[in-house]
Specification:
- Helix content is 58%, strand content 19%.
- It is an alpha+beta fold and 358 residues long.
- The radius of gyration is 59 Å and the shape is rod-shaped.
- It starts with 19 loop residues before the first helix and ends with a helix.
Length: 358
C-alpha cells in the first residue's frame, strides 16, 4: 500500500511530519532536479528518480561523515592531562581537563600527563679534580611544568634532559676530589647537580622541573677498588673508636670529678681535725704549764707516773728492779689472756670477711 501522499498514517492518525522523500526531492531540485523534470520526452520520471536516489545517498554520506568528524573532533582529558593545540602548525591554545574540541585534520593535538613524576637513571665515568676516574650512578625525578614549552621549544625535551644531567654531573664531580665523591661529598654533589641541571633546563625553556636528584652509587675504578674498600673500612673503624673513646670519657670524667670532690672534702675534714687536736694540745699544755708553775715537783711526778702507766699498759712484760740486784720479771696473765682472746677474734673476723668476698 502506498500512503506517501496521504495525510494519515496506516493507523489512521494524521501525519503532520514532513516526508523524508519530499525533503530529498526538494534537495534534488536544488542540485538540478528541476531541469530534468521539465523535459517533455517522457524520460523525466526516470531521471528524477535517479537524482533522488543520488541525493539520498549523498545525505546519508554527509550525515555519516558528520558523525565521524564529530567523533574525531570531540575528546575528553583526565584531571592529570593537558593538551596543546596547533592550528596550521602554529600554537592556538592549551586545553584543560574535561570535554574539548579540535578541528580534526586541521589541528594538531599533543596530550601529556603533567602530574606524572618521571624518573631517569644513568651511569657515567667521571674525572675528578685530582685526576681520578670514578663511576657515578645518578637518578633524577622530574615532571612537566609548562606543556607549551615542552611541546614547542625543544625537539626532544627528555633527550635534552639526559644530556643536561651528564653535563651538570661532569662539572660538579670535576670540582670535587675522589675521596669526597666516594664518601662524605655525595649529598652536596646531588644538590649542586640539581641546581645546575634546573638552570640548564630553564635556559633551554624545556618546560621541565626537576624535583630531586640522587647520587645512587659511586664506585672507584676496578683496579683500585680493594684499596678504597680498605680505606673506607679504616675510616669506619676510626669513627667507631672515636665514639667509644668519647663514651668512655663521658663516663670516667664525672667519676673522677666525684672522687676529686670526695678527696677534697676528706682533706678538709682532716685539716679541721688536725687543727682541733693541735688547739686541744695547746690548751692542755697551757693548763699544765700553769699547774707546773704552781707546783713543779708534784706536777713533774704526776707526769712521770702518767707516762709510765701509758707505756706499761701497752706491754705484756714488766721488769722489777729490786735492791738486792736480782731483777724480777712480772707476767700479767690476766691482761695477756684478754689480749690473746681479742687477737683470736680479730683473726676470725678477717677470715670470715675473706670468705664472703670470695
Amino acid at each position: 500500500m502506498n500512503w506517501e501522499n496521504q495525510d494519515k498514517d496506516p493507523w489512521g492518525n494524521k501525519n503532520d511530519a514532513p516526508d523524508f522523500d519530499e525533503l530529498i526531492k526538494k534537495f534534488s531540485s536544488i542540485l538540478g532536479g528541476k531541469k530534468s523534470s521539465n523535459n517533455s520526452n517522457g524520460s523525466s520520471g526516470g531521471g528524477n528518480g535517479f537524482n533522488i536516489s543520488l541525493s539520498r545517498m549523498f545525505l546519508y554520506a554527509l550525515f555519516a561523515f558528520s558523525i565521524l568528524y564529530a567523533y574525531q573532533s570531540v575528546y575528553q582529558l583526565d584531571a592529570s592531562e593537558r593538551a596543546v593545540i596547533l592550528r596550521f602548525g602554529k600554537f592556538y591554545e592549551e586545553q584543560q581537563e574535561g570535554l574539548n574540541f579540535r578541528l580534526a585534520g586541521i589541528d594538531e593535538r599533543y596530550i601529556e600527563n603533567v602530574s606524572l613524576t618521571r624518573r631517569y637513571t644513568q651511569t657515567n665515568s667521571m674525572l675528578t679534580r685530582d685526576e681520578n676516574i670514578v663511576d657515578v650512578t645518578v637518578s633524577a625525578q622530574y615532571r612537566i611544568a609548562n606543556l607549551k614549552d615542552f611541546v614547542l621549544n625543544v625537539k626532544d625535551p627528555e633527550g635534552s634532559l639526559r644530556q643536561a644531567i651528564e653535563s651538570a654531573l661532569r662539572h660538579v664531580v670535576g670540582d670535587n676530589t675522589l675521596e669526597q665523591t666516594l664518601t662524605v661529598g655525595r649529598e652536596n654533589i646531588a644538590q649542586e647537580v640539581q641546581t645546575r641541571l634546573q638552570g640548564i633546563l630553564d635556559s633551554y625553556a624545556t618546560g621541565l622541573i626537576v624535583q630531586q636528584v640522587n647520587i645512587e652509587k659511586t664506585d672507584p675504578p676496578a683496579a683500585v677498588k680493594d684499596a678504597f674498600d680498605d680505606v673506607v673500612a679504616a675510616r669506619e673503624d676510626k669513627e667507631r673508636l672515636q665514639n667509644e673513646a668519647e663514651r668512655y670519657a663521658l663516663s670516667i670524667v664525672p667519676e673522677a670529678r666525684g672522687q676529686a670532690q670526695a678527696r677534697i672534702r676528706n682533706a678538709e675534714g682532716y685539716k679541721l681535725e688536725v687543727v682541733a687536736n693541735a688547739e686541744g694540745e695547746v690548751g692542755r699544755f697551757t693548763q699544765l704549764l700553769s699547774e707546773y708553775e704552781k707546783a713543779p715537783r708534784v706536777t713533774r711526778d704526776r707526769m712521770y707516773i702518767d707516762a709510765m702507766q701509758s707505756v706499761l699498759s701497752n706491754t705484756s712484760k714488766v721488769m722489777i728492779d729490786v735492791d738486792s740486784g736480782n731483777n724480777l720479771m712480772l707476767l700479767p696473765l690476766d691482761k695477756m689472756m684478754e689480749e690473746s682472746s681479742k687477737s683470736i677474734n680479730v683473726d676470725r673476723l678477717n677470715l670470715r670477711r675473706g670468705g664472703d668476698n670470695e
